[in-house]
Amino acid sequence: MGIKKVKPTTPGRRQASFDDFFDITETKPHKSLLKPRPRQGGRNSQGKITIRHRGGGAKRNLRVIDFRQDKFDIPAKVATIEYDPNRGARIALLNYHDGEKRYIIAPDGLKVGDIIISSQKKIEIKTGNRLSLKYIPAGIEVCNVELQPGRGGQIARGAGNVIAVMAIDNGHAQIKMPSGEIRLVPEVCLATVGKVSNQDKRLIKLGKAGRRRHLGFKPNVRGKAMNPVDHPHGGGEGNQPIGLKAPKTPWGKKALGVKTRKPKSSDKLILQRRRKKRRG
Q: Is the pLDDT reported for residue 195 higher than 70?
């Protein structure tokens, strides 16, 4: 994709940039692979808000994405490269030789007419092909990687994400995650060769609040702009900074820099933690 700018006819358009959709080959999705997307507004089944600042947004349908790609050893032809309003990456419509159609996350460089295949055996290392990690040489970039065999791709599915295969040893593959974390996954887990498409998405500037509302996000009010009864940062004379020893959440818990990740059984497979975020 590419980024385009428009004439600055309004303050919002002056700051905004847009996707040129140059790589899209079809604008109408395949009807049999669509399903409704119920809008919850960040609420659970009890009607309570569990995710703040969500609501509204443009209506859209879900595309049924095949993250497992478990039609093994059956060649598929790429019919279209399409836009998916529910994710940053492009999706590709595959026509299998047995007549079935499926959507997948499109790797960067995949083109209409390409023939790709998914297999648990050793096959050609080619963009779009999906195979076990044990057959992928070190240094090859992959995406849509499984954490557990047969569960389907769970990591490196966002626009521009990529995972590097570092080594294969003792039944595990050593991979470097997009966050910088180095971890082990079973060598029989499947991965797609190549990196996820639409890597320029991070360069798009929304430009105005309305575009963010169309994406389904509601406004987020600063804590220090509130009253003390509403937020730990509230109160003070004028535009005063946070008067506490450390930033807090609306519920009084420490925020920014405090580790909140709970211990997991898979922690033993992490060889190196992710890169620390820079402050400043």
A: yes
